[in-house]
Automatic annotation (TrEMBL):
GO cellular component, one term: plasma membrane
Transmembrane segments: 78-96, 108-129, 141-163, 169-185, 321-343, 363-387, 672-694, 700-720
Organism: Micromonospora globispora
Basic and acidic residues bias spans: 1-13, 20-33
Official protein name in the record: Heavy metal translocating P-type ATPase
Biological process annotations from GO: copper ion homeostasis
Record field: compositional bias (Basic residues): 48-60
Amino acid sequence: MKQEHLTHAHAGHDGLAGPAHHEHGHAAEEHGHHVPSQRPPDHLAGRHDHHAGHDHHGHGGGHDKHAGHDPEQFRRKFWLSVALTVPVVLTSHMVMDWFGYSLDFPGLNWVGPVLGSAVFLYGGWPFLVGGVREVRDRAPGMMLLISMAITVAYVASLATSLGAFDLDFWWELAALVTIMLLGHWQEMKAIGQAQGALAALAALLPDDAERVDDEGGLRRVPVAELRVGDVVLVRSGGRVPADGRIVDGAAELDESMITGESRPVPRAVGDRVVAGTVATDSALRVRVEAVGEDTALAGIGRLVAQAQASSGRAQVLADRFAALLFYLATAAALVTFVAWWAAGDLDAAVVRTVTVLVIACPHALGLAIPLVIALSTAVSAKAGILVKDRLALERMRSVDAVLFDKTGTLTRGAHTVTATAATNGFAEDDALRVAGAVEADSEHPLARALVKVARDRGLRSVARDFRSLTGRGVQASVDGATWAVGGPALLRELDVAVPDELSGVTRDWSARGAAVLHLVRLSEAGRPTAVAAFALEDEVRPEAREAIAELRQQGVRKLVMITGDARPVAEAVAADLGFRPGVDEVFAEVLPADKDRAVADLQARGLTVAMVGDGVNDAPALARADVGLAIGAGTDVAIESAGVILASSDPRGVTGVIRLSRASYRKMIQNLAWAAGYNVVAIPLAAGALAWAGVALSPAVGAVLMSASTIVVALNAQLLRRVRLSPGSR
């Protein structure tokens, strides 16, 4: 394994762990120091009912020309237009000839003009208004093409009624507008469903909260009336109404809607809780620390809205093509009209021109990217992946190297007992029980780790006469004997005899970078003797090994770990994780301020680098990397240096980001290819290029094909919902 040194041997450590925490001498010398025992969308701003009528205005990306369009509006217009169109179609002489029936009643010839005009003015109004807006904004596009098509069809229908053309066109006009309404309704519906992440976030907030008054009574109030400092009761099974800290009670909280982790998390007095999470098994009292716009949920809502409104490179390409398509379609329509008119068929010129304008409408092209963006944002938010920078997410699909900060990312960031050895007939459990009792009153991190492991195993005893041996360890009486716990400094100070079977084991532990503590039996009659030893290390997360293996399966060329720890510690962790010698790399003894140099070094070799860190100590490195991922951020969405935020501390979330990036890119390219290919084939057909072979499309058929192409794009994008992003999923 290639070792890189960015600083000298005394470079320090990376925050939670460093050489001083692992090197056996320093650990013991420190062991004796004892201490007595933050604008969301309106509907996330604290009023749950703000989202009730949300109509998903705008689509983000390049699809905002439909801003203000409500699916419900198009639904109503569609069904009323259907009711008006049916009589127009049934009274059409062309349709009667096709199906061999006849109708004859007074006013028959007025059904088409009257009801057709109603369909044009009522059903076509959104398109006409949109077309005028595009002209005013000097941004011609889809709405202008549709409005031109239905206007030409309407004028041709009027002219036919006045005898200018030999066309039966009113039914074509009515069917055209109705089909366009159907396509647009389904498009708005798909976008609305994709953008449902915002509504889903809003729905996490309860409508009311139970506020505890000064006398201890309860009063139900709207969530919007909560203020910082209020105490609220969260019943078992209830949702936390605002961010705060627990002041009474303990419960398992379901935080899956925030972090994507399915397992409930234990929370007790003093722990922070987040609005929208659920107390699954017990009641809590929470003192409110943030409400409305300042809650974590509101911050997540801002990120989701920002991500859905952002544009990537694929969106820029689609926007340019859509703008170009307007001019190509207009030119094709003019050429088509002139060509058929020159051929002496004015009726065909009108029909072919309208069909070209209809079939070339870039509905599918306009939907291709925004729908993917909206869906990917919604899916990722549910999995605890918050995208701040669309370009960063797009780059993630082609990352060559993933650089992990070790402490707290690949390891738990806290020491635990990883090995125990006992001698002189002393059982390991007894040794851990006694050591845990001796250390019970100590606040040193290594002592707390030893006590926690003993208590977790149910090994408890009571210690008396606790005394701190400053700089060396602690001493206390347990089971009538006097004991001391400490490291090398304690052994030297008390001239402790260490049996050979212990010294050999502890030498190996120290060599791999573990902190070593000894349990020493003190005796007035003889020399103190070490009866047991404990290795304490920053434990590697089991899921980190899975993350490394899966990243390798995903084709990441190089896996890199960076740490402030000493080289032996870093080597031991890398070997435990399965790093490949000669391929993967370790940067050891690196100061936090110098971590960005490691990123620059990898980039200088031509690698696209993703940096995974905590977003605080690693801010410069996250900012320099091609993709910065802040892991374990929980609900802290104010991390400016990261392009992607992983709410969970599980490093397997990185593999989910890669899956999301690749799946989103595939869907974008597939949709763009379909939309572009559809127009390449459909426009010549609409213009009548194959009319000589009897293949000609009517405007109504053109509208059906155009709407069908939009539905294909929408359905393809919906497949993103099948991508598994949660940690551990494939």
